Amino acid sequence: MKKYTCINDINNISDIIKEAIDLKKNPFQYENIGKHKTLVMLFFNSSLRTRLSTEKAAKNLGMQVMVLNVNEAWSLEFDDGTIMEFNTTEHIKEAAMVISQYADIIAVRVFPNLINKQKDKSEIILNSFIKYASVPILNMESATAHPLQGLADAITVEELKVNKRPKVVLSWAPHPKALPHSVANSFIKTMKNLAVDLTITHPKGYELDSDITKGVHINYNQAATIENADFVYVKNWSNYTDYGNILSEDSKWMMTQEMLRNAKFMHCLPVRRNVVVEDAVLDSDNSLVIHQANNRTYAAQIVLKKIIENLD
Ligand code: CP
After folding, report:
1. What is the distance in A from the centroid of ligand 1 to the CA of 146?
2. What is the pLDDT of residues 229-272, one digit of tens each?
3. Where residue 187 sits, what CATH number does that domain have?
4. Is the pTM of this model over 0.85?
């Protein structure tokens, strides 16, 4: 693997899931593969799970890890040809090359601004690192994608499915803040590559990028969609058409135990209790959120292993 910036960088998802499950049984079986290799993790935004699980994954492979909260470093310029006489101090061209002197792999977390759709879609920051760094790039959640979360979720579904072809639902949830589309996008893309029946349910007007949802059934009736589901992934996203806005905070879309019944509950975390999902669901045995968070380590570890195997 040359990089991991979207789920499509995986050639065969079934194989990689099997390898991740095998790694989980013995996380130290490749403890020397990353010896004398360094992962530099760059955070433009906050993180709990991604930061800790990716560092743990790298250390399980014997790598050294350096973390930089980018907002504490020099402010970066991403536009080409800019006269840098205002707030930005260092151009990505130098910064990416400099970081490449210290890193064998660079991992980047950078959220969208949810103001300019085209700019977010262009993934200017992630793509600038891909363009100017001389080492592979790992996406730790970008403007439009969270492929490490998508892979962890796929591992979780494969591990815990009871039916050969489970019914999986992605259900929109209310949230007081405008949130990105990245988790939903990567979940949909990943599930499209698995043997599952996927349906998306959300209020009218919350349609995601049609390039991503193409071929997936959308049902505006949440209760009917969730009936007989095996896995229900609950996630808020802000409006995609009226970009970055919140059209509905309809609390009826909050996931309840009554609605969920015996289905397994999934969420990437962090989650706002009794806004996105009620306590009874999160505190029940059907909640998979901790299992998903644990699988973040093995998703990152299998991806890092594949990238290390391809280093020059
Ligand atoms: N799910 C997830 O990416 O969590 P963090 O934002 O805490 O990294």
Report:
1. 9
2. 999 999 999 999 999 999 988 999 999 999 999 999 999 999 99
3. 3.40.50.1370
4. yes
